[in-house]
Write a structure and sequence with these properties.
Largest sheet: none
Distance between the termini: 64 Å
Shape: extended
Mean pLDDT: 79
Radius of gyration: 23 Å
Number of helices: 8
Number of strands: 0
Order of helices and strands: HHHHHHHH
Helix content: 55-70%
């Protein structure tokens, strides 16, 4: 990816952003096809770090044992990936040392840009991933009970009051 960005930036600099994105995509597709054509005997993609491997294992577990659909797996991958990026977890040792404070820090940071209902959708994949790590023996302490979703009320999305201009419009029609 770094090669694609530097090459496209150097070689296609005078062009616009859309042209640069087009050529980056074309270059990525070419690089991905080289091993399949038998032209390269070396691996093009860098090795994954252990945290990413654990995420892939977790997604495989969800697919094979829980029977989750692709969209649900995508959501799990998105939020657990963000969680791992927030932790800067790159080794199994980082995963073993996950604390409640780190989980809370991730959820608090996420809450700055998301609604409470959305935070509940973030908590479920993180809780499931922590349960998976505990089940696999990477986490000694089960942290799933410390991942609390925000409380949602039945009618919380209803407006507390009606805008005065709307009230005037209704009276005008009557």
């Amino acid at each position: 990816e770094a090669f694609v960005k530097t090459t496209s930036h150097r070689k296609i600099r005078p062009c616009g952003l859309q042209t640069r994105q087009f050529w980056r995509r074309a270059l990525r597709m070419l690089i991905e096809q080289i091993p399949h054509a038998g032209q390269a005997s070396f691996p093009i993609r860098p090795m994954k770090d252990p945290a990413t491997v654990r995420l892939d294992e977790y997604l495989t577990f969800l697919r094979e044992h829980r029977g989750l659909k692709e969209h649900t797996l995508y959501v799990h991958q998105l939020y657990v990936g963000r969680f791992l990026a927030h932790l800067r977890a790159s080794t199994d040792e980082h995963l073993r040392s996950i604390s409640v404070a780190q989980v809370d820090g991730f959820l608090i940071d996420s809450s700055h840009t998301m609604a409470r209902r959305s935070i509940g959708a973030v908590c479920a994949p993180v809780r499931g991933f922590l349960r998976y790590l505990h089940m696999r023996g990477l986490l000694v302490r089960n942290l799933t009970q410390q991942v609390m979703s925000p409380r949602l009320y039945t009618q919380e999305t209803l407006p507390r009051s009606i805008d005065w201009s709307y009230v005037e419009r209704i009276f005008a029609e009557v």
